[in-house]
User: What shape does this take?
Amino acid sequence: MSLFVLSIGFGLITASILAIASVGFTLQFGVTNILNLAYGDVMTGAAFIAYLVTRAGGSLWAALLAGAITGSLASYVLNRFLYTPFVRHGTRLFGMIIVTISVSLVLQNGLQAIFGASFFSLVLPRTASYGFAGMIFTGQQLLIMGIAVVAMAVVHSLLSYTRLGRAMRATAADPELARGCGVATDRVVGVAWLMSGALCGIAGVTLVMNVTSFSSTTGGSFLIPVVAAAVLGGVGHPYGAMIGALVIGLASEVSAAFVNPAYKEVVAFGVLVVVLLVRPQGIFAEIATQKEVVA
Amino acid sequence: MPTSSASPVRPETLLEVRGFGVGYGGAPIVDDLDLTVGNGEIVAVIGPNGSGKSTLLKGLTGRAQVVHGSVLLAGADVTSHREDKLCRLGLGFVPQHKDVFPTLTVEDNLKMGGYLLARSKIGRRVDEVLEVFPALAPMRQRTAVRLSGGERKMLAIGRVLMLEPKLLLLDEPTAGLSPELARHLLHDQLPALVSRGVSILLVEQKALDALTVSDWGYVLVGGGVQISGPARDLLERPDIREVFLGSAARPAVPARANP
Assistant: This one.
């Protein structure tokens, strides 16, 4: 029983990191319909910048900020100077997926070339542990959960109460019609990449805050549960991604307490497969019939 | 180019399209097309399938590539402008398909149409637009996907009216409507819009009905203007009646007089 409760605690931490990552992933996908499989590697890039900041003596907050800015700028630049030209030249859904896979490979190997094929850890102060109802968290893990809650609240307020949020939702629903209402969709797309990138960067930093060590492949292998969470919630729907993150995070950690933890990702995959069986239209069917890439 | 004799004087030009060529990368579909819409006019563009009617509208709204020519709206060059710019300049486009946000309510569709308005003005403008289409007023909270074809088209026009456009581009607004509703839209709604100060460029399959409510007509063939003239003159021409309208067709309502 106590192992079960303990694992729920781990699940909540994983769910928090997943939520930040998958909301960012789905926010950008919802607006642009570009399935950016380089997302995990941008997370890794942000983590390395955060690593450099902490090693230079910067605080954790400075590392988080640097990670967010790195993710934001990297995503914006990727879209502006790589994805958009491809879209303008007529590359469509599946072609764009191949382009993002190529970017993923280049980023991953580029990071390895720069930093080497070894393992790294953020330089973080030791913090006390806190117990809650049988769950134990470090101060940093509480911080991760706090960041997730704040990030979700910010995304929610932005989408629900601002003009930009309305423009983003309209662009996601129908870019041409949104343009007809006066929405400058190219600017909205740029903002979506910036926002998604900031979440991506924060997710990358929180991910490596929670592990003993990371390498150039850490973010890339985290992409599977991120996509699983986004798909589970209905891809393109930020609130769905939050729910999806909670389900995938809890399922993978609780299962890890009872079966070999090496199967965590198998569980994430398993949930994804079951969801696709229950929702047979699946992610690509919806895109192919209704939507097209936007840049 | 044959045109109708004794052309009446047209009102001051609002939209002027000169030497227009539009395509999709290959040979232009619309080529060397001239067209004008005057203030307060309803201008019909008719023509058989494949004559370039849709391509013309796509060129005017920045959805297809303009290869040559120019578009002036109230004197300002708007060639190749995309719709988010055009609607700021007073041009409202109602596409044939995907003309409303299906998952939003009537009210939210109209509010989205008023995206460029100050927040404090949106509510009042929604009420004003619902006065133009009173049939929609009781359906404010209904999701657009649950509207009938006619209601949906009124909503689509209403969404565009939110920004008080000077010129409306309507792409086959009666497609998919019953003959009854189509007639109501063309014969009652469009003149009512004109009386509120809107000019209309109407692209229609239903050539007879379109010409009947219009001041001026353009007949498109093979991507260019084959014939243009006052709509009632076009309706009288036996060759046009024969080719485009069917020789037995007769206008149900006399053509509008030129203002």
Notes: The beta strands of chain B are 13-23, 30-38, 42-46, 65-73, 76-77, 91-94, 167-171, 199-203, 216-221, 224-230. Residues 1-5, 247-253 of chain B have pLDDT under 50 and may be disordered.
